[in-house]
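Below is how a single chain appears once it has passed through the pipeline. First comes the sequence as given, then the structure the pipeline wrote out for it. We keep one example in the README because the format questions we get most often are answered faster by looking than by reading.
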Amino acid sequence: MVLLTGNEAVACGATDAGVEMATGYPGTPASEIIDYLATHVKDMYVEWSTNEKVAFEFAAGASYAGVRSMCVMKHLGVNVISDALTVVAYTGVDGGLLLVVTDDPQPFSSQSAIDTRYYAKLAKIPCIEPIDGQETYEMVGAGLDLSERLSLPVMLRATPRISHARFDVHTSAREKQPQKGREFKYDPKRYVMIAPHTAVNHVILNKKMEKATEEAERFPYNAIEWADDSLGIIASGISYNYAKEATHHLNIHPSILKLGMTHPLPPELIRSLAQRCDRLLVCEELEPIVEEGVRSLLGPQKVYGTLTGHIPREGELNPDVVIKALSTLEGIPLKPHSYPKVPARTPSLCAGCPHRPAYYAIKKALGGKGVVVGDRGCYNQGVYPPLSAIDVCVCMGSSIPIACGLYQSGIKPVVAVIGDSTFFHAGMPGLLNAAYNNVPITVVILDNSRTSMTGHQPNPGTGVTAMGHETVVAIPEDIVRSFWADYIRTVDPMDVGETTKTMREALEFPGLSVVICRHPCAIVEGRYRHRVGVPTAPFMVNSEKCTGCRSCVALGCPGIEFIDGTAKINGRCVGCSVCAQVCPAGAIERRGGS
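Resulting structure:
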């Protein structure tokens, strides 16, 4: 028995289930799966791909060769792979193909809280959901076995309370599977998805789903826990644990159908439960996917859940929510209770983050005019006061196209901000489109050579792969130059004066202008300095010179405070010097005068 997070349980399950190739793109709460495999497993090919679409298509190609493969992403990545996912379901797979998706119901770290089970229904593939770390570990192998029996990709859906919680896991519960031989079986009518072949394979896919329904009836993680109460509960994933805790708290004993496979549903198991119970509460996070399936089988009269308002349709579930739902159905009075309020904590860019002076320079250059369109990454924390540096942020790679749309609608000036990893992921088509259509916006690429928000994973600009192998370094300037941008400049954003000057030049340029702000992530840089023994040289405020103008505080650096009318620098200072550069009174000095 070992103590593992849910994400580590996925990784260990993959190694023991004979996965030979694992791909993914960083995204909380899924990132640690590929990180763990890349650092702990030597006999598996592990890759951080350029984006989720590339990752899934790579895994599909490996599966076509008979290789057990796994592709990992957060829920938003499933939007990116939807085209390939629906078509790979038509072609079918050979080696097992497991798509591990971590949804973010609250959401804690995402711009939406979509329920990816809809994609399983859309693509007509099975979806399985573990209730704890043990099932997570075991379901990796069970999902791959199911994938090979049905010749379909299988989605394993988790949420943060599974992915990031720690569990005692028996990793010997499944005997390690030997790796299989590799072979591609030529069959153009199956693999070449032109319209005539699709029409034939559509019939085959529907027959596979009929077989998947039969599999659901005997899937070992679908089970009814019988009791004598006339109330029944249907629960899946982490919601099952909440249901168990709620029934214990209320001292009631309903029968519970635990669903380890939520698409397709097991009709006979559901009917068996319904025969013994006159009311059924469906516990699931986000959308009423199971509930709607149960209603289609039984009718709506005895089924309760999201559609009846007993279970919320937004955010995470928790035991209190389920307790309230059950107490309403059972007529059990509840004693009111309250929890202590936790002070709100506003996210911020780290002390010494190079994105902060880049935003400062953009705002100075704009002079209170125009619109700044952000993109997905840690740099979207620049939206918070006092920086208040971005006005729009939608999804990966959207900053440049949205900026073009604003400009062509008469909004000027417009600046699009995008990180290096996001630029490689989905930003290049937008930049090419801007150049092709002669849209004179300003694009700022914030290049810290890492995918920092999700844990500093490498990207094509880092020069190293997930497995630690040295590789080519993608240079944004070279890519931008190939897209015929008219104005290309590279600056170190820590030089505030030069960066501001360059931003002004870019905004005044009559064509498409691109500024690359290149400086290492503050955390990565700090770790490097610690490793080579270079001490931090922090700054201090000379209180005799400080005028209380708050120019330094406007940077929003967590290393600067304003107390009793003067600025103070606390222990978070990493010595980046940006505050000293913006102080008009020259009151910020390096400690020791060096």
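The CA atoms of residues 280 and 303 lie 5 Å apart.

See the next section for the split statistics.
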